[in-house]
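step=encode ok
step=design start
structure_in=
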């Protein structure tokens, strides 16, 4: 098993264990510049900027620099919201709900 696949396996296992222990459902996973994985509470994301690295600013004022692009972060937040809010999120995206 290569070092890369061992790391990937560890990250997947860590996600599973973290979810089982804490019941995290409000998180998206991102990668820091040092390749460490970070679970971010999607409900706390205030802004996402590209300058040139992607900077996520949380409502707490904390800033996170990550490898993913702004578009990838937005896609992950939308996927999270669809999973949590389901049909209501889709109506909001379609402009049917304020």
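sequence_out=
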């Amino acid at each position: 098993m290569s070092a890369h696949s061992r790391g990937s396996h560890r990250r997947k296992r860590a996600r599973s264990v973290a979810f089982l222990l804490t019941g995290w459902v409000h998180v998206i996973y991102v990668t820091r510049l040092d390749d460490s994985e970070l679970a971010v509470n999607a409900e706390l994301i205030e802004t996402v900027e590209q300058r040139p690295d992607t900077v996520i600013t949380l409502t707490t004022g904390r800033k996170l620099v990550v490898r993913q692009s702004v578009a990838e972060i937005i896609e992950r937040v939308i996927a999270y919201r669809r999973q949590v809010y389901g049909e209501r999120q889709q109506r909001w995206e379609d402009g049917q709900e304020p």
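step=design ok
step=annotate ok -> The longest strand covers residues 45-51.
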